[in-house]
Amino acid sequence: MENKNAMNDVKKMKSATILKSQFATSRLTHSEITSKIVVFRGVQVMLDRDLAELYEIDTKVLKQSVKRNIERFPEEFCFELDKNEFENLRSQIVTSSWGGLRYAPFAFTEQGVAMLSAVLRSEKAIKVSIEIMNAFVLMRHYLHDNMNLVGRLTAVENKVDSKFKTIDENFSKIFKELDSSPKNAKEGIFFKGQIFDAYAFFQNIIRSAKKEIVLIDGYVDLSILERLKAKQKNVSVQIYTDPRAELKQIDVDKFNEQYPTAVLNHTKKMHDRFLIIDNKDLYHIGASLKDLGKACFAFDKMDNPQKWLPVIFEDLR
Length: 317
Known about the structure:
- The protein has 2 domains: about 20-145, no CATH class; about 185-315, Endonuclease Chain A (Endonuclease, Chain A, 2-Layer Sandwich).
- It contains 13 helices and 11 strands.
- It has helices at about 1-20, 30-35, 50-55, 60-70, 85-90, 110-120, 125-145, 145-160, 165-180, 195-210, 220-230, 250-260, 305-315, and strands at about 40, 45, 80, 105-110, 185-190, 210-215, 235-240, 260-265, 275, 280-285, 295-300.
- Strand 7 (about 235-240), helix 12 and strand 8 (about 260-265) form a beta-alpha-beta unit.
- The longest helix is centred in the middle third of the chain and has 23 residues, at about 125-145.
């Protein structure tokens, strides 16, 4: 009985080892895969030759496997490039390692790649397919996270397109506008999701400082130091935050090695958040700067700052 149980345990261990090896990932890097992901018909796909290269098989073998199992590859899994798509692709890869193309390639969506692993039936195909599907997921997340920025760039590019003829001039104008558009704003309300707009607004306030920046925020963390590095050289920074905040002296010390000089001060006396620029411009901030764009909040440049600054500094002591 004991021998039988021991043999069963050995079988289970072998099965687990085989299963683990089947779902182990390949040694392909993320960049090796994402560089081969292209967009046709509004979806992310990979072309048959690129997939064959990753699977380390001949393109002809891959195509034959698909054709033998064509019922498993509906159009949302796999489609052949039409004449216009094919000509456009050929014009882009004249000098590539693909060489001359005579036949339109097949394009495989993420679902198509998953099906390929079942059709090819090899350990290599399973490993590579897992890596490719992970790359598709990461690319989707990246595009989603940067959708607002892409839309803003496109809008500005369209705005200046009629004024400039060369690509270099267009992009120079785009980034100049992105850098300067919030500079003269006195106040702003930023809604949830407007992370780039809130970030740009704050960065331009920071860049406007000539001598000193004073930040009063009970929840300062490392991300705020990341934003403060946009300051001009030789501008000092005074940070007042709660002793329980995430920012530590070691973080400030590391910051000062590259972007001197910031001083960390602790206080429990301030509930609201303020940003003071050169002891003359006073901003009231509706939420902690670490939460820029995560929820609706406002920047408000206060009138008559010389009346309020002595009161604020007195309360900090």
